UniProtKB/TrEMBL annotation:
Its EC number is 3.1.26.11. It comes from the Archaea. Residues 33-250 form the Metallo-beta-lactamase domain. Keywords: Endonuclease, Hydrolase, Metal-binding, Nuclease, tRNA processing, Zinc. This is Ribonuclease Z. The gene is rnz.
Amino acid sequence: MPIVKLVILGSGGAVPKADRMLPAIYLEDWLGHRVLLDAGEGVQYRLLQIGISPSSLTLIAVTHMHEDHILGLPGLVITSKFLGGRLKVLAPKSMHGALSKLGVEVADSYEEERFKIKCVEVCHTVDACGWLIQWDVGYKLDLSKTSGLPKWALTELIKGKPVKIGDRIITPEEVADPAHKRFKYLLYTGDTAPCPEMWKKVGSVDVLIHEATFADDVSPSKAHEEGHSTVADAIEAARALNAQVLVLTHVSARYPDKSRHRELASRISPPPYIYIPEDFETLLVKL
């Protein structure tokens, strides 16, 4: 079953609080990929607290050069080198020169057979990437079309591979359930103001992790001028992207807690289902 685990290692914005550290989210999927989304200060210790060694990460994807998103990266690089590893870091192209000096592999995308992650440009005050992850979850077969096929053939068809039965070649598309989506998507925005251009390019996602720096006490124009979003902006993005699940993070230190964010989110009838997690909270998302 395709399940993605998200551990919120830091749900804060530019200034940390004792219970709300700088941006970092650990993602682990059912295929075994381990991805760190942003690397705020102190993230190495937080990974260790949940039992994850830096050298075990598949990759780190940082959204932009602002210090609150990258200050934890040098420590991760050094520890990984001591342990005999070499980290893969995804970042905007404007950061590649600086990051390559740390001795890491740098790119703006990563691809395996069933897993892809790429940069999508967001609307911030500096060059910034949101990270769009695509999983190939395989085909769900229409049982009325597969009656009598051997088990090995069903297995191959689910994987997206055609099979030959006698003189007949059967493709997955012929026997797939048309209501089932083969590809599932998660988008992590990092810092961004509302970004309709990006929404159009992405199309739709299943899970959206969106910043909500401000509640409703800051004017939208002020938030957008600073390259950030309000709770209402994040909900608008989720609806534009047809997201079923919305995770709000990057909450400003101006708020002593997240009660106002939760109150605003509670006024919305799902979808999307809205989560406003605390640091170290784990979310299990079924795709």
